[in-house]
Amino acid sequence: MSHNSNLLHRRERLLGPNMTTFYSDPVHIVRGEGAWLWDADGNRYLDCYNNVPHVGHAHPKVVEAISAQAATLNTHTRYLHEGILDYAERLTGTMEHDLDTMIMVCTGSEANDIALRMGRAMTGKTGIICTDNTYHGNTDLVSHLSAKKTPIGGAVDWVKKVPSPDTLAPLGGSAEAQAQAFADEIQTAIDTLEAEGHGFGTLILCPFFANEGFPDLPSGFLDPTVEVVRRAGGIIIADEVQPGFGRTGRHFWGHQRIGLAPDIVTMGKPMGNGHPVAAVVTRPEIMAEFRNRFGYFNTFGGNPVSAAAAMAVLDVLAEESLVENARDTGDYALELLRQLDHPMIADVRGAGLFLGVEFARDGDTKRAAPFCAQLVDEMRNRGVLLHSVGRYYHGIKIRPPMCFDRAQADLLVETMDAALKALPV
Ligand code: PMP
Predict the structure, then answer these.
(1) Claim: this prediction has a pTM higher than 0.95
(2) Which of 160, 261, 302, 361 is surrounded by the fewest CB atoms within 10 Å?
(3) Which one is the CATH code of 3-55+321-422: 3.40.30.10, 3.60.15.10, 1.10.645.10, 3.90.1150.10?
(4) Whose CA is nearest to atom 1 of ligand 1?
(5) Lowest mean pLDDT among 15-19, 191-195, 266-270
(6) Which residues line ligand 1 (CB under 6 A)?
(7) pLDDT reported for residue 140
(8) Rounded to the nearest whole angstrom, what is the distance from the C-alpha of residue 135 to the centroid of ligand 1?
(9) Is the ipTM reported for this complex over the cut 0.85?
């Protein structure tokens, strides 16, 4: 039995079946540095997908912050400690002034679970609206929103899913028409929730529509939606798990990029550079309503080590000008990707270091999915790690650590060019 199949066998026996792995031949990673990864045989890979090690794999400053704090104190969160407070001040300083209170948790799923419960607490209504091609996490409540997983008991009628915006097949033609069409879909969902007796409480969206395939949408796209939600007295959650922390290059948050003023912001993945830390940020009156009603406590959320890791990430982002790097290197990589010549490329788009290539076969995106899966494997075999995205997994998602540089962008695009040429169309 080969080394990898032995690990896969143990994984299945010890951790259970049906666990996600990437690539037909999964990679056994043992070390990382910056945007590079090494497998157990010493092969090097360029990590073009991983938004968890946001400021780079094993960043020495984050490692040092974690180990110094772990060597001093780590405990549950019922003691007084400055770490979480200093971080809350720093984090909320990156947002609009009324979003200035925070709960720290361990995963994006928990953050969204809390945010949805905040929405229910504020409105007294259980109805939730999300898009039909999203993922917001895996608690019992949040899993009802996920497009690609079926919760026990099947779909619930207090969640209504609206068609997600699409670059290739827009809901309503022009950007303005699509913005209105999206808002109209939300209005219909609100009316249905009200008519069915659940009432409409909360709209949750990734402001970059990351899992939906990140269609190119102008700032102001959500204005008609906000109007509809406000008229109905609803709460808006911006899930920043993917576009947050400067990923899109010109804004620190995805909601700022699209010009959305949310009531609640959730975040996770990149926040601790791999250390499990996530958060919910909201206005004080929403926080008070939630805390008074539920008295929330999270044993690990915002413990001294988590707060130190998260603070170090903000320090490195600033010290190394990584948001500016995402803008500059992202623009450079996007330009290179646009020069790729292949009959199945239907669109190349993105912002900062969040880029994508969408494929279609004879104009049909669904039929491009098998090709995309082959391309992902071909890239892996050539030492570049990325993965697929979109309704049918018919596009490539490129989302490397924020320290990604131009030489790495060159390597990514040269490798993709060679992989595209090597694959039968
Ligand atoms: N929201 C979004 C948009 C996500 O993509 C994810 C994870 N892929 C989550 C929430 C859940 O985060 P976690 O896995 O940390 O629970």
Answers:
(1) yes
(2) 261
(3) 3.90.1150.10
(4) 136
(5) 15-19
(6) 107-109, 112, 135-137, 206, 210-211, 239, 241-242, 268-269, 278
(7) 92
(8) 7
(9) yes
